[in-house]
């Protein structure tokens, strides 16, 4: 099922077009990563999908419902906004119960306690939120986003401000949500986290999507050459020189010594030709490693 579908969605502020026509589909059960530099338009895009701001033009559907009828699905959508404040004199539990009541979600006190534990607030259930760090507020914000058992959850930087252990715990929680067939649409500036967590990723740049796909697809899309290192043992120096010359005739050798050769190839199928040349000139091969760009490299080069 398509959970989010946008058609040529645009938003301008004071004649400045910040979202410049986005067509995007997100499927049920996906953990979808939405990346972009500061000011790329990510929050504006999410704010349209969650009904906080109105699009300037274009349409979208959330859980099959068109944007002019969002009220019909509001109870099935949870949101962690980019910034959340809480009433400081309430404890985490009091806040969560109050929020759930306000949204007419039927949850028991025990369910709220369990949820706070799952997001990593086990020791802060009865602590007033004015004592919370930024990371703890994010955890409470995530609990607030999922307390109504929504089908679609928007998480704006769910692990920002968290220590590494808390971030891992939160990533585990996000995976659990997706395993229950909930759809997660998340932004993050932690590219390592996105690479590990997300089934597909969109990169937003100046209000449009400049890259979209699985990490594998993005790596192929943004990669011009694949760096391949072969660990080898030549039995004859002259023959090995001939092998290198044969390889060099059609590709670039970035590095070579008597135990390694590193080449830049266009396609993985080129590896077979290199191996063939090396074997033909009496060289044993022990290991082959290809280096694809990390999401960070893709993002930085975009
Ligand atoms: N309410 C508003 N009024 C005027 N301009 C706005 C408003 N909200 C956002 N903008 C502008 O729209 C552009 C996109 O902002 P947006 O917050 O959507 O980016 P972002 O990708 O979420 O950035 P960040 O990663 O910093 O959160 C920016 O130039 C911003 O100044």
Descriptors for this entry?
elongated, Alpha-Beta Plaits, 31% strand, 34% helix, 6-stranded mixed sheet, 302 residues, alpha/beta, 2 domains, Rossmann fold, 4-stranded antiparallel sheet
Protein described:
The chain has 302 residues and is an alpha/beta fold. The protein has 2 domains: 2-213, P-loop containing nucleotide triphosphate hydrolases (Rossmann fold, 3-Layer(aba) Sandwich); 225-293, Alpha-Beta Plaits (2-Layer Sandwich). It is 34% helix and 31% strand. It contains 10 helices and 14 strands. It has helices spanning 42-49, 92-102, 109-118, 134-146, 164-179, 191-197, 215-222, 237-248, 270-280, 295-301; strands spanning 2-13, 16-27, 31-36, 57-62, 65-66, 77-80, 152-156, 183-187, 200-205, 208-213, 226-234, 252-256, 260-265, 283-291. The strands form 3 sheets. It has a 6-stranded mixed β-sheet, sandwiched between helices. Helix 5 links the parallel strand 7 and strand 8. Helix 2 (92-102) packs across helix 3 and helix 8 runs antiparallel to helix 9. Bound molecules: adenosine-5'-triphosphate (ATP). Adenosine-5'-triphosphate is lined by residues 13, 18, 36, 38-44, 82. Residues 13, 18, 36, 38-44, 82 line the site of adenosine-5'-triphosphate (ATP).
Instruction: Calculate Rg over CA atoms.
Output: 25 Å
**Structural class of the secondary elements?**
alpha/beta
What does the average pLDDT come to? 92
Q: Say which molecules are bound, naming each kind only once.
A: adenosine-5'-triphosphate
Provide the CATH top-level class of the largest domain.
Alpha Beta
CATH fourth-tier homologous superfamily of the largest domain: P-loop containing nucleotide triphosphate hydrolases
Q: Which CATH-level-2 architecture of the largest domain?
A: 3-Layer(aba) Sandwich
Poorly predicted parts: none
Largest sheet, spatial ordering of strands? 6-7-8-3-9-10
Termini gap = 31 Å
Would you report the number of β strands? 14
Helix segment tally: 10
Number of domains: 2
CATH topology of the largest domain: Rossmann fold
In quaternary terms, these chains amount to single chain
The fraction of residues assigned to DSSP E strands is: 25-35%
Helix content: 25-40%
- Helix and strand run: EEEHEEEHHHEHEHEEHEHEEHEH
Biggest sheet record: 6 strands, mixed
Mass-distribution shape: elongated
